[in-house]
Amino acid sequence: xxxxxxxxxxxxxxxxxxxxxxxxxxxxxxxxxxxxxxxxxxxxxxxxxxxxxxxxxxxxxxxxxxxxxxxxxxxxxxxxxxxxxxxxxxxxxxxxxxxxxxxxxxxxxxxxxxxxxxxxxxxxxxxxxxxxxxxxxxxxxxxxxxxxxxxxxxxxxxxxxxxxxxxxxxxxxxxxxxxxxxxxxxxxxxxxxxxxxxxxxxxxxxxxxxxxxxxxxxxxxxxxxxxxxxxxxxxxxxxxxxxxxxxxxxxxxxxxxxxxxxxxxxxxxxxxxxxxxxxxxxxxxxxxxxxxxxxxxxxxxxxxxxxxxxxxxxxxxxxxxxxxxxxxxxxxxxxxxxxxxxxxxxxxxxxxxxxxxxxxxxxxxxxxxxxxxxxxxxxxxxxx
Length: 384
Ligand code: MTE
Ligand code: MO
Fold this sequence. Notes:
Blueprint: E1 14-17, E2 22-24, H1 27-30, E3 43-44, E4 59-62, E5 68-70, H2 72-78, E6 81-89, H3 95-101, E7 114-123, H4 124-130, H5 135-138, E8 143-151, E9 157-163, H6 164-168, E10 175-180, E11 183-184, E12 194-196, E13 209-215, H7 222-225, E14 254-259, E15 265-267, E16 272-280, E17 287-293, E18 301-302, E19 304-306, E20 328-335, E21 342-351, E22 376-383
Parallel strand pairs: 4-13, 15-22
Antiparallel strand pairs: 1-2, 2-3, 4-5, 6-7, 7-10, 8-9, 8-13, 10-11, 10-12, 14-16, 16-20, 17-18, 17-21, 19-20, 21-22
The structure holds ligand MTE and molybdenum atom.
């Protein structure tokens, strides 16, 4: 069993698939902490977790005039350590809502294939400059490809790529990360090294990173070429042409309700209803507002946003423009609509480009069930 060496996982996780291991935290725990504890951070593995010996590990950097082969020690000592708090979201987060409209292919994720952590490592930019990136490379280099050390039975490794501009930008904050939440990376999250691409879909954040290649081409991997792409609701498996659509990089604006859960019962006696959730947008766009409706969308109220675990959230520094990599948690405390026996709660977020979530799933349905970001809805029963 190629999975027999996989690490032990936290029992509270909701498991979508055991081999490979794919799991998400219970939504109510997710919004309990601004920085998600690593043990309950969602886990998305396509292959068995590889065992990497930190003593012999080398990161290969190829495609530039001075190829590098870097040990962990060299990565830590030769390049300044940079720390970023960033949210990772799988392209398939909330896929189950697409499945409810019409069957799609993929893991049936709920609303918690998203988590937020503090990551530290060397800037990819610094490493590429050390490998001789310069005006000459600028004439041909377009993408940075990443190769994982995890492989399938045929020896094929996980791979993906990002545009070179993102990798080189001083404001891009792309890390070769060796720490998560102040500790070395856990096995499930890429020990000893992963690339962390803030604002970019989870799939490009390659774990157990073994090789970085600067290239004129995107990664040729299955996951870059024939997966993680969006299509029209009218495209089916007979007509889909994966070459016709771009690989997902930045993700659209997203939010969901983590409390109360769908089908929960609330007491009218409590009078005030507390609704909580998360909101995030890709590409470093900051969520500036979350609207919440308690009456199926007739009226809306603005939720309170927070970007730390502090009581005095006003003290939390606001992100630099274009570098809002981390989510906001939000809360609305409001009276229950009078007389209602059932309440339909909805939320929708707005980012600083005024991108908003679509109101329903059907118009954004796609055969792979990715980019599922319609207004999130939960129904609760009101009892006296
Ligand atoms: N990197 C490798 N090497 N192998 C993988 O299976 N899965 C990708 C990405 N990087 C994957 C990988 C996908 S699809 C996602 S969503 C994120 O890792 C999940 O990161 P996490 O498990 O740390 O939450
Ligand atoms: Mo993913």
